[in-house]
């Protein structure tokens, strides 16, 4: 039976995401907070890409084909907050507003480059991990695609379904699985600090609702990539402040 062959490995995957993955990047992030250089940031990006792709490939190999891609947390119909037409319309409007606001900084700075400074304050707490050199920016684009595909696949496609009862999971119900998987997703960004955990937990809830509303991961993946990659349009020290960019490349942020 599928349950007997995939149940234990998938339980281990869920345990990995909840108990191990959040701590994988924490030590590297602490070192970067002390002294952030191009080499350190590149190592951080590569390590994150490796564990995300490896975990996603393992989950893809041992789950029934198509399950993480298509959102069916249980064999029952969609939860009431998605199934009721009036609430569904409200959800769609709310989701559209959320992503319009989330993506506006990137769109605005692409249209009006001089607007970049007004958005930079929001990135100050994450400067230690943001890309500076052209090589870092290329890797940031890759890690943005990686996060969009792998994190949606793992946290919305797999973990939410598993926690809702698929493959012998604990059956928290769709709403419970949405909340729990979003909390795990937020915890996985603990290297960003308390504010980052809260922000990414909320983002996880929004991406999860979007997956439930659309019935698949295509749109969550696309929007996740765009939200992350827009950093390249907003944070561009080599163009805005070349001398400071060189200091950041060499690990001299105070200069």
Quick structural overview:
It is built from 13 helices and no strands.
* Beta strand %: under 5%
Helix-strand sequence: HHHHHHHHHHHHH
Radius of gyration (CA) equals 19 Å
What do the pLDDT scores average to? 88
Gross geometry: globular
Termini separation = 62 Å
Helical content band: over 70%
Main beta sheet, described? none
Summing up helix and strand content along with how strands pair, one would put the structural category as: mainly alpha
Q: Count every beta strand, where a strand is a DSSP E run of 2 or more residues.
A: 0
Note poorly predicted spans: none
Question: Total helix count?
Answer: 13
Can you offer a commentary on this structure?
It is a single chain. With 255 residues, this protein is mostly helical. Helix content is 74%, strand content 0%. It has 13 helices and no strands. α5 packs across α9 and α7 (134-163) runs antiparallel to α10. The longest helix is centred in the middle third of the chain and has 30 residues, at 134-163. The radius of gyration is 19 Å and the shape is globular. The model has no long low-confidence stretch (mean pLDDT 88).
């Amino acid at each position: 039976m599928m349950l007997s062959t995939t149940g234990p490995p998938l339980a281990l995957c869920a345990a990995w995401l909840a108990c191990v993955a959040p701590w994988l990047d924490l030590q590297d992030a602490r070192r970067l907070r002390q002294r952030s250089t191009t080499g350190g940031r590149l190592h951080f990006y590569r390590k994150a890409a490796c564990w995300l792709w490896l975990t996603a490939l393992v989950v893809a190999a041992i789950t029934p084909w198509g399950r993480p891609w298509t959102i069916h947390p249980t064999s029952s119909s969609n939860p009431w907050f998605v199934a009721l037409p009036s609430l569904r319309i409200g959800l769609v409007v709310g989701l559209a507003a959320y992503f319009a606001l989330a993506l506006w900084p990137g769109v605005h700075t692409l249209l009006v480059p001089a607007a970049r400074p007004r958005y930079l304050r929001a990135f100050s707490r994450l400067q230690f991990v943001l890309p500076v050199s052209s090589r870092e920016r290329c890797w940031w684009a890759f890690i943005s695609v990686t996060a969009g595909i792998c994190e949606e696949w793992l946290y919305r496609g797999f973990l939410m379904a598993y926690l809702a009862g698929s493959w012998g999971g604990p059956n928290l119900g769709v709403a419970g699985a949405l909340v729990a998987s979003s909390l795990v997703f937020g915890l996985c960004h603990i290297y960003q600090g308390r504010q980052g955990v809260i922000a990414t937990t909320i983002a996880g809830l929004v991406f999860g609702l979007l997956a439930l509303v659309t019935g698949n991961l295509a749109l969550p993946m696309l929007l996740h990539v765009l939200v992350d990659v827009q950093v390249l349009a907003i944070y561009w020290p080599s163009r805005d402040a070349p001398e400071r960019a060189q200091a950041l490349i060499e690990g001299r942020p105070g200069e």
